[in-house]
Amino acid sequence: MTEQKDPRHTVVVGCLVRNDENRVLLIRHRKRGWEIPQGRVEESEDLVAAVRREVAEEAGVRVEIGPLAAVWSMVSPTSALIFAFLGRYISGELNPTDDSEAAAWVSAAEAVGMVTSHVMRERLSVLLNHDGGVTYRSYSLKPYQLHQERDLLAWPEPGGS
Q1: What sequence ranges are listed for the domain Nudix hydrolase (predicted)?
Q2: H-type helices in 82-131, by residue range?
């Protein structure tokens, strides 16, 4: 009999933040390059508090957290659940910290051009094109492969999954 392992998932939150001029907040990560602010949820921390903290740590600004816009499930090579929210800038000056090399307000078109990682660009695209639903995507890396995509708020058709 094989021993069952307890499931182990890393939980990550991210946020597409827009300011009053409809510009998008990007941070530059040391390894991944430009991306939306995001990071791991800490022990005993709720998702909304985690996303507020991550934006403050990576960009130095306060944000109002809006709706959950997307959920990604990375199933390989490790397991991670990524919850992405929409947010609105409230206050503060951009001030990258030890968690990021730079932070910038850019247009949506500029943001798409600046984000070079395939996974991060897809994540950004989903959030920029948010239509009110909650996008769900399951994927694996090495190589990147999309396994499933659906709107979590849409009722499935009879016989669908």
Answers
A1: 7-128
A2: 108-114, 118-128
